[in-house]
Amino acid sequence: MVLLDAIYINNSGGKVLLDYLIENLESSGMRVHYLLDSRVFQNHPIINSGNDVTYLKSGLRSRHAFYKENRNKFSKVLCFGNLPPSLKLNAEVSTYFHQQLFIKIPDDISLINKITIGIKMMVLHCIKKNTDRWIVQSENVRNGLSEKYNLKKETVQVIPFFPPLPPVDHIIKNKYKFVYISNVGTHKNHQRLIEGFCKFYDKFKIGELGLTISENATFEVELIKSLQQRGYPIINFGFIGRNELSEIYASSEFLVFPSLSESFGLGLVEAIDSGCKVIGADLPYTYAVCQPSITFNPFSVDEIAEAFEKSLKPDIKPTIAKVHNQIEILIKLLQ
């Protein structure tokens, strides 16, 4: 039996990938036991009655107790959440690593967040020998993970995967429509993006910026409302489903991606597949995924505004993708 341990995944891009992975495991006919975060209860694809599901509150203690009780039950294990098992198992263990913050902590985050991430990095150092292989989404992360945790490169495999967006018909791209599909987080860099767009709009009075910020991000939500009242064309779509997401990409000319740290950047891949040009941060994760149309320094509001300005020029080069969906390879690895 295969164990999919996704106890640390409950939202954002990780949840999108988890749902896609569950769908493919269920269609493969494999016998699977799922270890899931209690917050995704009844909020994931249908799991066949022949497979098992354990829901637990996310945490090191509850996860360790599960492994201690079931250490001899599984033949293969996929830890889909950066951390290998807390003890050595009698199974072939793969760990899917997709957290760039565990490789390099950005300077531009709070001290509390730095301490929290630092503790998680220490835990990872302590249990890194409990996995047989690591799987990552890009060559950039492979290099960083190997160097940071002193891993042999041959134990780290690059197997990117991502779900296709639902197809849409008869949608025309709106010129100078920019979108950034991302939840709020300090490293997601929304505030600089918004300030940069406003500077650009003050100068040219053209363009529209679409964001997907949930209502619980009260500071950003109120900031957008106040800017809307002042006439800035910033739209907050809030939390959206896959169908609406596909329509937004299809109608947008540009994806702006100012994140300070990404292991992959699912939005980059989705936007390229939807025919958007990418205005991306001049950081390694961008070039690992694509050849962007325009780049900028994501720490500089002025350079973000200048990137918007560059998009007004005719004959902007198209964005070229460098990665492709390899879900079949990942599933085969578990069979």
UniProtKB/TrEMBL annotation:
Entry keywords, A to Z: Transferase
Transmembrane spans: none
Gene Ontology molecular function, alphabetical: glycosyltransferase activity
InterPro entries: Glyco_trans_1
Superkingdom of this protein's organism: Bacteria
Glycosyl transferase family domain mapped to chain residues: 172-313
Key word Transferase present: yes
Xref: Pfam families: Glycos_transf_1 (PF00534)
Gene3D superfamilies per UniProt: Glycogen Phosphorylase B
Protein name in the entry: Glycosyltransferase
Lineage: Bacteria, Pseudomonadati, Bacteroidota, Flavobacteriia, Flavobacteriales
